[in-house]
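Appendix B. One record, verbatim.
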Amino acid sequence: MKRLILSLLFLIVHTTYTSAAVKVVECKDAEGNIFFSKTCPPGSEVLDEKKIATGSKAAQENVTSKAPIRTSSISGTMYMIPSCSPCDGVRELFKANSIPLTEKNVEGNIDLQTELTELNGSLNVPITVIGDRKLSGYNRSELISALKDAGWQDPNEVKEETPEPEP
């Protein structure tokens, strides 16, 4: 009987762990900034909602999403500080599309603050550099445009090629 209870307990814990997922909401505030959160704060609107697997690899495979096209030559650099919602948005966009992002935390780092000031003329964050483009804040469409200019293909726009039938 004890073995049966332990087996059931293991099964319950294992099932719960492997099917765990979190809900992430894409929000837009009154100024047009887009960010990700668990819930949208008052005064912002919900743009999209996704479930992201947090459990085992099997659970992650059960969450449906289009696989992004990974282009190793495309990457970005973000000048950021901790506890920055727009920085989180940039980070999530790069992560969701498997694009490498180098983060430079300027908080308390005089050398990086000097580098950022020389690059941008101010200490505003986030500043994201993609190729020869420098973007301020989080604007999803501008980031996508810069990534495309650098050669990235949005997996949502890639059409599957079907061979033409032979006569």
